Amino acid sequence: MATEVKVEADPADAGFDGARLRRIDRHFARYVDDGLLPGFLAVVSRHGRIVHVASHGARDVEAGAPVETDTIWRIFSMTKPVTSVAAMTFVEEGLIDLTDPISRWLPEFAEPRVYAKGSALAPVTEPATEPIRLWHLLSHTSGLTYGFHHTHPADAIYRAGGYEWGTPPGLDLAECTKAWARFPLVFQPGAEWNYSVATDVLGRLVEVLAGKPLDEVFAERIFGPLGMTDTGFWTSDTDRLAALYLPAPGTKQLVRNDAFGAVGTSRPACLSGGGGLVSTAADYHRFTQMLLRRGELDGVRVLSPRTVDLMTANHLPGHVDLEAYGRPLFAEMPFDGYGFGLGFSVLIDSVKAKTLATPGEYAWGGAASTAFWVDPDEDLTVAFYTQLLPSSTHPIRQQLRQLVYQAMLD
């Protein structure tokens, strides 16, 4: 399978103004030239064919190595849709139902406790009145959290346990999941939305259902069938793996971080279904094309059309947006006008979101400022790759949407 992305159709034949699309190149090249991004690669596809590829800058600034179309990127939370798709293949086989309590397969969650009051050192908890169900994990309504949020005593408990931007050295996914089950939930399952380790727990659930490690499940059910040959939890081809950068405080100029950048260079102890994959633009393009085609690509069916439709519908109770139902903290997207499905954000009100994008668009992004979206109504997929932590550093995703849709003429 091809490891590079290249233009396959004239933009005009797909309803785009090519000159306007090149605004993407100029806009993000300025970020690179100003020292705010190391380099980037953007891919725009419509009607199943790539109409624009934009790139500029370096995959490794210090080595002077340029971004290539086959560069390997840490996609962090863009792993979550992959894990969600894997989980739904088991739903389709009848091995688990969306409403099933996860404690049937993960007994450590048999009696979850919910934070009621007190400090991180002396929390007062109460029993959960509702079990954590599969759909809670998929929709981030389980009550689990992340240590890096810094907004709730439960977040501090995660950090004290060694769970902030990663997991304690040497612990595998099963051991990490047991630790998360011991920590108090932020709220009763199903009561609110909170970005969390829920998709990592989902990955462990997938392992138990399959009776094999998560990387083998991904290879058998997604990567192999779709020809995603460069996607996995690590790569031995480290020359193609982009270096990872952080913004310097105050200036936002690039600071290389090889300690955190070691992610993806060797098999991790914990196979993180929430953020552990590395991939290429060509590979993830095949994943998004499968989603756009409602579960099928090149004669290979991963999911049924109805399953993809269900995953990309808004599952927040009352069909409200995240501003109404979510906690006002970091996530890989804005809250106004966006709901959440089973593994994806879902645009429900483009006016409230102040975006040119189409209602029904579903998307997600990663911590190193990568992002993708699928717009079924416009038969469109877009993806953006760089390696800058955190993704909240620059408004890349909003700007990219503006730049893509302003170039669309039909």
TrEMBL record:
Key words, A-Z: Hydrolase
Membrane spanning stretches: none
Organism: Amycolatopsis halotolerans
Protein name: Serine hydrolase domain-containing protein
Taxonomic superkingdom: Bacteria
Ranges of residues in domain Beta-lactamase-related: 24-402
Sample GO molecular function, one term: hydrolase activity
EC top class named in words: hydrolase
Protein EC: 3.-.-.-
